[in-house]
Write a structure and sequence with these properties.
285 residues; mainly beta; Neuraminidase; four-stranded antiparallel beta sheet; 2% helix
Length: 285
């Protein structure tokens, strides 16, 4: 039996296309991809633009120093942003990519795992490996396993397991993380039919929360069992999710209208919504 969760409450409005949320040092961060900016929500609910780039920002993460890492999707670089908002290239991924990069997870030692689209949009998906960016910016392939459009990506609280969504594969892949950051022992958890995963997050009871666009968010176990569901409002889609709040008991949802870049820029129907699920978040953000 699947438990339905609600209600969902609008929190932040007037966004173009919010994606890739993170909870870090008591604040909620996200990329407003089509506005080409990275934002933070302040304690009073105001949205602060931290950086603008001449590209679509995607995955976010933080180094031990507190500097923020930002994926620049189509320039295929990872930017490093200091406390003053000054940015520079932290890692150039172009030698290992070629069709755009997407979400990212950063571990406690400052290693970043970056997924890639691995396809020309007019061609069938090509399996493409996760890129490992060392703390000094050196790059390599994290494993030989290729993903079919890598998307949401998280690291478990103990730092030992990488959890990643494969949009075209309609599955979640889990990897063991070895010393040095390499990945092994891939396990695949298939989603229900017609569920295409986008952003994900983790809870403290071992659940994986998976944003499935127009079908909402599902909570699933490593066995593949679906336990909970959050339905989207009307024709909206849920593109990403992240636990936050003082006790990490609030699930923040990045929502928007149909996936249409030009329409999204004009309508600014993007929102951050919230819902209380009865679970608490876990994992590295």
């Amino acid at each position: 039996m699947i438990t339905e969760i609600g209600p969902v409450t609008p929190f932040i409005t007037d966004l173009a296309f919010p994606e890739d949320p993170r909870w870090y040092n008591g604040h909620f961060y996200f990329s407003d991809m089509l506005d080409q900016r990275v934002c933070r929500i302040e304690d009073n609910g105001a949205v602060t633009t931290l950086i603008r780039i001449e590209d679509s920002p995607s995955g976010l993460g933080f180094l031990p120093s507190g500097d923020m890492l930002v994926v620049s999707m189509y320039h295929e670089v990872v930017l490093r942003v200091d406390a003053t908002g000054t940015s520079r290239i932290h890692a150039d991924l172009r030698p290992l990519t070629g069709a755009g990069i997407n979400d990212m997870a950063v571990d406690r030692e400052g290693r970043a795992y970056v997924v890639q689209f691995g396809e020309d949009p007019t061609e069938p998906p090509v399996p493409s490996p996760i890129i490992l960016v060392q703390r000094d910016g050196k790059i390599g392939e994290a494993s030989a396993d290729g993903l079919l459009i890598g998307n949401g990506i998280r690291i478990t609280e103990d730092g030992e397991t990488l959890v990643v969504a494969e949009s075209a594969g309609q599955c979640i892949s889990l990897f063991d993380i070895a010393r040095g950051g390499t990945l092994s022992n891939r396990r695949v958890v298939q989603l229900p039919p017609d569920h295409f995963p986008d952003g994900i997050c983790l809870d403290s009871e071992g659940g994986i929360w998976v944003s499935c666009l127009w079908l909402g968010v599902i909570r699933m176990l490593h066995s593949g069992e679906v336990t909970h569901r959050i339905k989207p409002e009307g024709d909206r889609s849920i593109y990403a999710c992240m636990y936050g709040g003082p006790d990490r008991g609030t699930l923040y949802l990045c929502t928007g209208g149909p996936y249409d870049n030009e329409r999204a820029r004009v309508t600014r129907a993007g929102r951050i919504d919230t819902v209380v699920t009865g679970f608490r978040g876990a994992g590295l953000t």
